[in-house]
Amino acid sequence: xxxIKLTINGRAIETAAGKTILQxxxxxxxxxxxxxxxxxxxxxxxxxxxxxxVDGYANPVASCVTTAVDGLSITTHSEMLFRMRQDYLxxxxxxxxxxxxxxxxxxxxxxxxxxxxxxxxxxxxxxxxGPKKQLFFSTPLIRYFQDRCVLCLRCVHACREVxxxxxxxxxxxxxxxxxxxxxxxxxxxxxxxxSVCPVGSLTENLSPVKSRxxxxxxxxxxxxxxxxxxxxxxxxxxxxYVTNVVTDTQHVPNHGSLCIMGRFGYDFVNHEARxxxxxxxxxxxxxxxxxDESVELVADSLRRLDDxxxxxxxxxxxxxxxxxIYLIKEIAGLLKKGFVASPAxxxxxxxxxLYKDTGIAYPYVYxxxxxxxxxxxxxxxxxxxxxxxxxxxxxxxxxxxxRIIVVDPSPTALTRIADAHLALLPGMDSALFNALxxxxxxxxxxxxxxxxxxGFAGLTAMLERWKLESRGTDSGVSxxxxxxxxxxxxxxxxxxxxxxxxxxxxxxxxPALLNFSLLKGIPVRGPIMAIARExxxxxxxxxxxxxxxxxxxxxxxxxxxxxxxxxxxxxxxLNHALVKEKLPxxxxxxxxxxxTTSVMDSAHLTVPIGTFAEKSxxxxxxxxxxxxxxxxxxxxxxxxxxxxxxxxxxxxxxYKEIQDxxxxxxxxxxxxxxxxxxxxxxxxxxxxxxxxxxxxxxHAPERGFKLILRDxxxxxxxxxxxxxxKGLGMVYSAPGYPVSEDKLYIAPGDxxxxxxxxxxxxxxxxxxxxxxxxxxxxxxxxxxxxEYVVFKERTEALGLSKHMQKVLDVTVKKG
Amino acid sequence: xxxxLFSSWQGELIDNRGKSxxxxxxxxxxxxxxEFAAGEPIKAFIGWDGITxxxxxxxxxxxxxxxxxxVQKESCGRCVPCRIGTKVILDRLMAISAGExxxxxxxxxxxxASEIKEGSKCQIGQTGLVPVLHAIEHFRDAFDQxxxxxxxxxxxxxxxxxxxxxxxxPTKLKIPKYIEEIAEGRFTGxxxxxxxxxxxxxxxxxxxxxxxxxxxxxxxxxxxISIKYLKRFVADYELDKEKQPNIKKTPVDxxxxxxxxxxxxxxxxxxxxxxxxxxxxxxxxxxxxxxGMAAVGIPDYRLPRPIVGGxxxxxxxxxxxxxxxxxxxxxxxxxxxxxxxxAIFIGVGAHGSSPMGVDGEDKGYRGFIAGVKYLLDVNNGKxxxxxxxxxxxxxxxxxxxxxxxxxFRVGKPDVNLVYRRTKKxxxxxxxxxxxxxxxxxKFHYLCNPTRIIEKNGKVVAVELIRMELGEPDASxxxxxxxxxxxxxxxxxxxxxxxxxxVVDFGFLEGIEGLQLTKWKTVQVNQETFETTVKGLFSxxxxxxxxxxxxxxxxxxxxxxxxxxxxxxxLEVAPRVEExxxxxxxxxxxxxxxxxxxxxxxxxRLHLRMLEPETRKWTFDEAEEGFxxxxxxxxxxxxxxxxxxxxxAL
Lengths: 815, 649
What we know:
The complex is a heterodimer of chains A (about 800) and B (about 650). Chain A is an alpha/beta fold and about 800 residues long.
C-alpha cells in the first residue's frame, strides 16, 4: 500500500493512499462538521458542510468525496468556510420546523449540534416551498415527519446499500425535492433508515411511552432473538418501561444495524401477559406463591421423584443464558436420572458434533467475508433471521465485488445480487455438494492443502462409487445453473460458506457440504459460517455437549415423571397432539418463563424468570464468540436467583453472583480468550479431516411435493401463545418474512397445474396428517416445493408430523 | 453570426453596447448559429459560462429570472446549496422582476450565488448562477430600474440541459445520470437509463469509440471517466445476475407496418424505437445472424457474438420480427416491400471493400483478400486462407486492427501492418493499437503498396514505396507523399486491403428515384433522414459512409422518430431537443483549457486483460469487465457536469 504525506491545518500527517480527506481527518481526530456522512455508507456528499480549502486550488472541495493525495495542504476552518457552512445550515432551517421540544430527536440531533456549533441565531433568508405533510411510511413501525427531513439521503442509501432493499427514493426537483416511499411492499421494517436519520424525521412509532435520552437508563445488551448476536441499547424509563432500542455504529458486530425483531421486538417486555409472580396449581385452582415457597416446592418435588428412582427431564430454551443452562445442567447432574434437552438439538447440536468429527473449529469472524471473492449461502433464509449477516454479505459485494451463489429452493433475499441461484429440491444438498466435489477432484481444482487432509484418498474413492450410483444432478438443479456455479467456484480464490438448517434437514447434507468446503481450502482460505435461529443455540450445544437430548424424548419417555420447562414452549415446535397427550402423564410439571405459555395451563408450578431485559449473563453467538447481557431493569428475583437458590437447596454448588457461574465455566475451559479481549468457544487445534462414510444416493420426494416449515423457532416471547410483540404483529410485509399471519407459498407453475388461484384452498397430506389452507403464489419458488411460514396457527402445521421435522413429504391437491 | 452586443462567454468580455460597427469587437471563443430554427433568430444566449446578447429588446432581468427558474427545475435535490439556495435567489429575482425587489436583494444574491457556485455537488449548482453574477455586474442599470419599481418585460425562451460528454455522444446517452446511478448502486436503473437512448448497451460498452471520454472534464484534473467500461458493467450485470430486461412500450396510435432492411446497429435501433411505439416492425437481414458489422466485422475477442445476439433479443419482446437470409434486391425487391409496408428503412451498411489502386488488385490472386471479407470468414469460424502463414494488412483503422489481431487467432504467426502515415495519424482506437503491439504485430509506417507480386496466381510478395509527410489534407492530417525510387518488397502469402469500405447497392434492384451522393452513399435529408423516395428512410454507414457504430445508433433513433411522424401524417421535422443538440455542437460544451480549480489525483480504472501470449491465440474475450466495487469507485469520480443553456427567441 502506497503511503502519502499531507498537512491538515498545518499538521503533517502520513497515511496510506486511497482514503478520503475526511477519513484522514477523522483518523487523526481533526474535526470537520458533517451531516450526511455515515460510517456504514459510501460518502453521500449532500450536505456540503464538510467542505475544506486546499492550497493552490481556487475552489473548496467536499472532503468526504475527495481523495487525499500526496502533498496536499488543507484548511478545515476559515472565515469563508464558516460563512458557507452557516449559510447552508440557514438553507435547511428556512423550512425546518423548530419543534425541538416535542421532537423525539431532541438533544440527540445532528442538526441541533451543527446549528449550535455554528452559532446561528437567526435565519434571515426566505424561500417558498409547497407544504410537506406527514405521510404514511413504508411500515407502521416508523413515523415519517417529512417537514423535518433535511434530505441528507442517508435513509435512501442505507436501505439500498445496507439492507439490499429499494423502498425509498428521492423524488421531485429543486426545493420541492423530497424523500419518498416508492416501494412500500419491499420494506422489511429493519429500521435501518430510522437508525441513520440524523434528525427527528424518521422516528419509532411503536412505544406508547416516549422518552428522552436523559430520562432513561440506557443499558447496552445483546439481542435475544437470533444467533447473530447484535448489540444494542435498551432505554428503560423509571425501571418499568422499555421505551426504545438505540444503536451505535461503534459496537460489534452489527455496527448500528438491526432487524425488525431487534429494533421493534422489545415491547413484549412491557406486555400484560408477563408472568410476574409464581403460582401453584392444586386441584385445578391456582394461587400465587412467594419466591421462597416456590423454590421449596420444586426442591421437594425433585427430591421425591429422585428418591423414587423416577426420571426428571429439563427442557431448556436455546435462548436461555449460558449461566442458566449451566445451572440447570448442574441441577440435573445432582439427580440419579436427570435428563436435559433443548431445541438446539435439532440443528446446532448436529453441527457441533459434525464439526468435531470433521476437525473444524466452531468460531469464525463475520468480517472475514470482506476478503472473499465468492460467498455461498446454503439452506439459510437470511431475512427472517440473520438479516444483519445478509448485510455483511452485501458489504463484501460492494467492497470487494464478491460473487454470490445461493443454494435454496426459495428465492431468498440474497438472490437479488446472486450470480447463481441453485434452486435444489429440499433435502438434496448432499447430491449437489457431492457433485461439486466430484468436479473439483476430477479437474484437480481443489485447494492443494486439502490433498493432505486425513481421509482424502477415502473421499476420492467413495465419491467415485457415489458418482456411479447417483448419476449426475438429481439435486434438481439444471445443468446450466450447475455449470455456471461450478465455474464460479472453480475460479474463486477465497470462498466463504454460510449455511443454515436447510442443510441439516437431511442427514447427509452437512457432511457433504463440509467435504466440499474442505476441498475449497475452507476454513483456512475462507470462513465457514454456521448460523443459528436462536441466540444461544451454540452455548447450549457447548455446555450440554454429549448429554443433549431431543425435546420430544422428555415427553415420550414414560420413565421421566418430572418435567422442568425453562423458558421454552414445546407447543411452539412440537406436534400439539403429542404434547397434549404426554404432559398430563408427568407427575410434576414446572413452567419457568417470562411470558405466558400453553404449558402453564397444566403446570403444577409456574415461576417467573424475567425477560432478556432483566437478565445479566452471556450467550455464545453463532460465530462462537461470547456476547454479554446486562440487566436493564430490576424487577425482583428472576431466573438466575431461582436456579441458584434451587441448586443450593438441593445441596449443589453455591453461587452468589452470576459472574461466579461465568468464572466456573471458564474454569471448565469452555471459553478461551481471543484477540482484542473477546472470548470465544475453546478450540482444540485439530486438523480437518474428510467424512468418508458411504453417501447414499439421495431419494426423490416420495409424495410429489416437499413442504418446508419456516421460522418454527422464532422467539416464543415475540409470537408465542399470543402475539406478545405488537410491533411484529402489525407488520405485513415482504414475502417469506415474519408476517402477521401464517402464509403458505406455492410456485406459479404448480398453482397453475393444480388449478389453484391466489388465495385458493389446497389440501396437503403428509404420512401422518393433513391440513387445508389458502395459498399465496410466490414467483421464483422452486416447483415441487411449498413453503409454510408459521405464525400463530401452529397446531395445524405441526400436526403434519409426529416428531419435529422441518421438511416433509406431502401430496398437494386443490382443496 | 449576427452583430454581437455583449458577451461574457468563457471569460472573453466583449461590450459593444453603444459602439459603432467599426468599433465593435468580434469574439474569438464564441461560436453560435444565427437561428435556432428556421425563422427563429437567437436574440440572446445565456448559459453556464455567461451571457451573450444580440438584441437589446431582451430584458436581462427577466431572462435571468427565467434562467434560474430553469436551474431550480433541473436541480436534482441531492445537495443543499443548489436545491434550496437557488430557490432563495429565484424568489428574489422574481420579486425584482415584478418591481417588488430592494437593494439588499442584490447583495444577498451575489453572496449566496458565489457560495452556491463553490459548494454545490454538480455543475447545475456550480454554473447555474454564473450568468446572474455577470448580469448584475454588467447590466446593473436594468436591475436598478426594476428595484425602483419597473416591471421586467416577459420574453420567449427555450432552455435545455446538456453536458460536455452528452453533447458529443451521437446517440445522446444521459451519461452523467447513468454513471451516478452506478455510483449509487442502482445498476438496473442505470441500464434502464442507457436503454432510453440505445438498445445496444453491451455492444457499445465494448467497442464504442467513446467521443465522450475525450470530452470529459475530469481529464482536466486527472483522467477521464471510463464511461465505456461502466456501460459494459451494467449491461454485463444484467446477464451475470440473470435479471429480466424490462423495456416498456409507450404506444402511439399507430397501426402501421415498417420494413427495416439490415439488422445492423442502425436497423436494430430503428426497430427498437418503432417497436416501443407499438408499430409492427419486420427486419430483413441478408446474413444468418443479427448485428451487421458488429457481428461479422468485429471479432469475438472484442465483442462476443452472444452479446450481440442478446441485445437483438430485446427486440423480440417488443414484437419486432427478424427474418434472416433475406437478400433484398434478389429474394424480394424494395418495390415489393413498398406495396406491403407503410414505410421502409434502409440500413444496409457498407460491407464492400475500397480498392487500393494497386497493380494486380483486380486479378483475383489467391491470398489477396479484402479486409471485410477476411473478417467475415474469421467470424464465421473459417480460416480464410489455410495455405498462407504470413499476413500483411494495409490500413490504419479499426478494421485493419481487427484483421491483424484476428490473424494470430486463426493460427497465422507472422502478422504485419502497413500504413502510409505514422502511428500518430492512425485513426484506429489507441487501445487497439497498443493491444496489437503487445500481441506482436509488426508495424511498418510510412509506406504504401504499389504492386502485388504473384507466382502461379498466388500472392508471394507485395512491393511497397516509402512515404513522407507533406502538407495537411482536408481532415487536418499531413498528406503522405511517395519518396521517389524507394521501392522495397515484403514477402507474404496473404495481402489484405483494409483502407475503407463502400456500400453495396445490390438492394437497389428494381427501385427508381433513389439518389446517391457523390461519395456513393444514400442521399438523405440530414435533418429528417428521408431519401429522395417518399416513404424510404435511411441511416447508418450506407448513408454516412463508413462511420462509427454509435453514430448508426443515434441516427437510427432519430430516423425512427421521423418515420413515426411520417406515419402519423405529421410534419417530418426535427424535435426541439435535436435542434438543441445541433446548437450545443456549435457552442462546444467541453473546453480543454478550463481550469476546474479543484484537486484531482484519482486515476481512472482500466479493465483487466488476459496476458498477450495467452489471448492472441484465442477468440475468448480479451478483457474482463469491472467488478461491483471497481465500477462504483470509478463512477464516483464523475463530476456530473450537467449544465443549462437557454436561448431568447
